[in-house]
Design a protein that fits this description.
heterodimer, A: mainly alpha, two-stranded antiparallel sheet, B: alpha/beta, Rossmann fold, 4 domains, 6-stranded mixed beta sheet, about 25% strand, globular, sugar transport (chain B), transport (chain B), ATP binding (chain B), ATP-binding (chain B), Sugar ABC transporter ATP-binding protein (chain B)
Chain lengths: ~325, ~525
């Protein structure tokens, strides 16, 4: 395991380094850091901080995708959890606020999990239901308004700092370590990979595939809820229409860039988070460069294509083919 | 039983296959196979799973390239490189699962890609008129404008056949066409087949329903383990001989050592089933499995062998009877239950139901043990390495690299790794479905030796095989199945290829043989 990740992660590490170098080229101060009011500032910190929601989403998404599923509802779950946290923030203590938001995420994950694992609805359709309905639920909670709050505790979740690092980054690192401990510290990782690799065979080996699938959707819901709380804390308000909008696609992209196949099987938490960081480093780089942000989407597409090509087994075939072609030429 | 009166030998031959050979790695799927199909002949191609029927069909229809041999159609050598090539050459295939578009109308399906047009516009009315006339020829008077899915499987099959024949087919290959048809629908299909044969089309009929073979076919060709066993006129072939061709060697050959057979009361009953069964799946059966004993399940394809194994392992839920382990009634509703009781199961479909191809040999070996221990008691990496290496050495899995993805191993080594997966759980009972299927000769003998060793170590084994000599070699008892029911149990000296064959063929409708 310890050996595998670096070897598998070469393409991602290379992509991240190249993008950071480009960022450095367009903005010479990119790697500068300075401490102000006990908090670090700088573009790199900004990349990490802005990338947190997608990184959290990708932690849940990578497990779902490893079982051969997909969760389109995470953006909507972010909105629901954000709305829940925002409406409770000024009247309840922080543990209650976060606890409620996470409970809502868990319920959403359970709903998805039951549809997929028990009722055996195709994941893409099953989670589409909550993707659509979730925004409606979030609007019901906020009663169609943008709910703002002033609770300093919740604001700290988005804008505070722990030991100089912005709180969201600390939370994301904590979740990465926690997820890693749960998945690789128990047999869950192996059983998820087996389920995603061949569900029939796993079932016939006595693996409780249904429980595996259910649990990954629940975890995905919880991760999305946490991302939603942080996004709401960041802007000190909950916008049911726009919170987490389209982020499910970034999360899926992060997982794919991280080398986990959409067919399920092998997965890597670290590389999924690295995928999220690659996406964010590009976004930040384009903002810093002064090019119009519209370009962002095109650049993103090119980088995704490059990473996917680098991972494609066909590319190996192609290079062998061109080598043979070169040899055969006089 | 064919209504064609010409003697088969007198027919001009249409499709001639000589010396056909095809290997996949070390596995010889077809070895020097000859096959001749005459004009207007209905020719059955028989054999158990893995005998080489589908490989033969796929080579002829251009799905696989052959390694050696010739295929001649009406005298001209052909070498189709795709299914499309084969259709253009005049060889059409209709598979068990109809390969048409269920949401389009019958007429659209018949003329897809070659619709009659005028000024580039499809002439719907003309197409429907032609489709209707075409199907009338086949005895079907239906609304061809309705979606294909709204009709029965039989009509869908006939539509597929009509399309194939209309594309100027001279050879029609029907792969298990009757598997999902009821008796009446089979009649309709047979009428169509007889009409096509009378028009001079050669038909290859693949089926495991021997009654139907006797009813419709002129000749049979039997394959076993990729080799041609023989081609016979159906009229000179008693059913017992046909089954012998499919399952066993010649009787003279079957003198070989047998597993020592102690009286079975001497052994402790480990698992027993009473009235265990599932409606429409396997008729209720009684079965006792003892420590240190191999019970063989014998029967033709589709007789209920695999079905019995799946019930025993909880992969299919029984709706009657009860299972007990060491005298206590147990719940057996899922493979998880069965694994918890100390059962293990190596399924026949190794690739789709056995291995997790992307995972390593180590991970595949520890999978069942880990699933049984539960999430919170993970095997440490060191324990995993130890277990994997122990079984890699014990079973001689090659290459001896626990970190290799199992999908890269040969079939025999994959099978050993699957055995290791269950042996690592120290099972009481192992169910092996065709453990030697698709495995090269060397590994074949090793697996058989393993089965015997395991038995000596006190395991109870339930083994399915269509190789009767193999079953006879290691079984202490043999349960014979026919038509999804357990019909006979042979023990002690009665375990012989000839008695198993007799039990399988018993009760056959001999009237047909007499009539022919």
């Amino acid at each position: 395991m310890t050996l595998r990740i670096p070897r598998r992660g070469l393409a991602q590490a290379f992509a991240l380094i190249v993008i950071l170098m480009i960022d450095r080229a367009v903005s010479p101060q990119f790697f500068n850091l300075h401490l102000q009011d006990g908090r670090l500032f700088g573009s790199v910190i900004d990349v990490l901080n802005r990338g947190t929601p997608v990184a959290l989403l990708s932690l849940g998404m990578v497990l779902v995708i490893a079982t051969g599923g997909i969760d389109l509802s995470v953006g909507a779950v972010m909105a629901i959890a954000g709305a829940t946290a925002a409406s409770l923030a000024d009247t309840h203590s922080l543990p209650v606020v976060i606890g409620s938001a996470l409970a809502v995420g868990l319920a959403c994950g359970l709903w998805n999990g039951i549809l997929v694992a028990v009722l055996r609805i195709q994941p893409i359709v099953a989670t589409l239901i909550l993707m659509v309905a979730g925004r409606g639920i979030a609007q019901l909670i906020t009663e169609g308004r943008i709910v703002t709050f002033t609770s300093p505790d919740l604001v700290w979740m988005g804008n505070g700092a722990v030991l100089g690092l912005p709180t969201p980054i600390v939370i994301a690192i904590g979740m990465l370590l926690l997820t890693g401990a749960v998945v690789r510290g128990t047999a869950l990782g192996l059983l998820i990979e087996a389920t995603g690799g061949n569900a029939r065979a796993s079932e016939l080996s006595g693996v409780g595939t249904r429980a595996m699938i259910l649990s990954v959707y629940v975890w995905c819901g919880i991760c999305a809820a946490l991302a939603g709380v942080i996004a709401a804390a960041d802007i000190m308000g909950a916008d049911a229409n726009n919170a987490g909008l389209w982020l499910e696609l970034d999360a899926i992209l992060a997982v794919v860039i991280g080398g986990t196949s959409l067919f399920g099987g092998r997965f890597s938490l670290v590389l999924a988070v690295a995928g999220a960081m690659i996406i964010q480093a590009m976004n930040t780089g384009i903002l810093l460069s002064g090019y119009p942000p519209e370009l962002n989407l095109l650049v993103k597409a090119v980088v995704v294509l490059a990473v996917l090509l680098a991972q494609s087994p066909r590319l190996g075939d192609l290079s062998r083919f061109t080598a043979r072609w070169r040899r055969s030429k006089p | 039983m064919s209504d064609s009166s010409a003697p088969p030998a007198a027919r001009p031959s249409l499709l001639e296959i000589r010396g056909l050979t095809k290997s996949f790695g070390a596995l010889k799927a077809l070895q020097d196979v000859d096959f001749t199909l005459g004009e207007g002949e209905i020719h059955a191609l028989l054999g158990e799973n893995g005998a080489g029927k589908s490989t033969l069909i796929k080579v002829v229809t251009g799905v696989f390239a052959r390694d050696a041999g010739t295929v001649r159609l009406a005298g001209d050598e052909i070498a189709p490189r795709s299914a499309k090539d084969a259709v253009e050459a005049g060889i059409a295939t209709v598979y068990q699962e109809v390969n048409l578009l269920p949401n389009l109308s019958v007429a659209q399906n018949l003329y897809l890609g070659r619709q009659p047009t005028r000024f580039g516009v499809v002439r719907q009315a003309e197409m429907r008129r032609r489709a209707h006339a075409l199907l009338l020829d086949y005895g079907l008077d239906i609304d061809v404008g309705a979606p294909l899915a709204s009709y029965s499987v039989a009509v869908q099959h006939i539509t597929a056949i009509a399309r194939a024949v209309d594309l100027s087919a001279r050879v029609l290959i029907l792969d298990e066409p009757t598997a999902s048809l009821d008796r009446h629908e089979v009649e309709i299909l047979f009428r169509v087949m007889r009409k096509l044969a009378a028009d001079g089309i050669g038909i290859v009929f693949v089926s495991h329903f021997l009654d139907q073979v006797y009813e419709i076919c002129d000749r049979v060709t039997v394959l076993r383990n990729g080799r041609l066993i023989g081609t016979r006129d159906i009229t000179d072939l008693p059913r017992l001989d046909l089954i012998r061709m499919m399952l066993g060697r010649e009787l003279a050959e079957t003198t070989h050592e047998r597993a020592a057979s102690q009286p079975d009361t001497a052994r402790e009953v480990c698992v027993s089933f009473k009235g265990f069964g599932k409606q429409g799946y396997v008729a209720p059966f009684d079965l006792e499995l003892r420590r240190g004993e191999v019970v063989g399940l014998a029967g033709l394809l589709g007789s209920g062998r695999t079905e019995t194994a799946r019930l025993v392992f909880g992969a299919e839920r029984a709706d009657s009877g009860e299972a007990s382990v060491a005298g206590k009634a147990v719940r057996l509703n899922s493979p998880r239950d069965a694994a918890g009781l100390g059962f293990g199961y190596c399924p026949e479909e190794r690739k789709t139901e056995g291995i997790v191809a992307d995972l390593t040999v180590r991970e595949n070996i520890v999978l069942a043990l880990q699933a049984r221990r539960g999430l919170h008691r993970p095997l440490s990496r060191r324990e995993q390495d130890e277990i994997a290496m122990r079984y890699i050495r014990m079973l001689d899995i090659r290459p001896p690299d626990p970190e290799r993805p199992i999908g890269l191993l040969s079939g025999g080594n994959q099978q050993k790794a699957l055995l290791a997966r269950w042996l690592a759980t120290s099972p009481k009972l192992l169910v092996l479905d065709e453990p030697t299927r698709g495995i090269d000769v060397g590994a074949h003998a090793e697996i058989i030796r393993l089965v015997r060793d395991l038995c000596e170590q006190g395991l109870a084994l339930l083994v399915i095989s269509s190789e009767l000599d193999e079953i006879v070699t290691y079984s202490n008892r043999v349960v014979v199945l026919r038509d999804r029911a357990h019909v006979e149990e042979l023990k002690g000296d009665a375990v012989e290829v000839s008695s198993i064959l007799a039990a399988i063929a018993a009760d056959a409708p001999t009237a047909q043989e007499v009539a022919s």
